[in-house]
Structure formats: structure tokens, C-alpha cells
Amino acid sequence: LCGYSPDLSDAIVDRAMFHCDNAYHYPAANIAGHRCKTHTVSNTAYRGFGGPQGVMTAEYMMDHIAYTLGQDPLQV
């Protein structure tokens, strides 16, 4: 969420999208980043500048795939 004032949200969402594959290869992935204007203050730029959010997304996807297949995430 971007908040109500101009900030670095565009760059941060872009970087999160660039990192969302982490060290994996998704040959058929379609990545989209949505910026949402809200009524709250902007809280976007901090250490990592979007990178950690992207990596967490990749790991969440791997965990979800493993759970769905009934396998250990380390094996997926």
C-alpha cells in the first residue's frame, strides 16, 4: 500500500517484483505489482527497498506448493 502522499512506492514495488523469483526459475510466471493509494501515511522505504518483500513472496509460493502437494518445502 502506497499511502496518500508521493513517495518511492513505484521503485519499491518494481524492485519487489524483480526479486519475487528469488533463486527459482518460473518459466511461465506473469508478475504484476499493484500500487494502491490509501488514506494513511506512506510507509514504504526502509532497509531492503522492496527486495525482502519479493524474496518472502517466492518462499511463500514454495511453501504453498509444498503444502498443496503434501511434500516438504525443502524437497520442492
Task: Record the SSE blueprint.
Layout: H1 9-19, H2 51-69
Detailed description of the structure:
With 76 residues, this protein is mainly alpha-helical. The chain has a single domain, classed as Aldehyde Oxidoreductase, domain 4, CATH 3.30.365. Helices cover 39% and strands 0% of the residues. It contains two helices and no strands. It has helices at 9-19, 51-69. Helix 1 (9-19) packs across helix 2. The longest helix is centred in the C-terminal third of the chain and has 19 residues, at 51-69. The mean pLDDT is 86.
Q: Compute the gyration radius: what is it? A: 15 Å
> Helix-strand pattern, N to C?
HH
Name of the CATH class? Alpha Beta
Number of domains: 1
The number of strands is 0
Largest sheet: none
- Full CATH superfamily name: Aldehyde oxidase/xanthine dehydrogenase, molybdopterin binding domain
CATH architecture assignment name? 2-Layer Sandwich
Q: Which stretches are poorly predicted, pLDDT < 50 over at least 5 residues?
A: none
| Morphology | elongated
Mean pLDDT across residues: 86
CATH topology: Aldehyde Oxidoreductase, domain 4
Number of helices: 2
Strand content bin: under 5%
End-to-end C-alpha gap: 31 Å
Q: Structural class, judged by helices and strands?
A: mainly alpha
Question: Which bin fits the share of residues in helices?
Answer: 25-40%
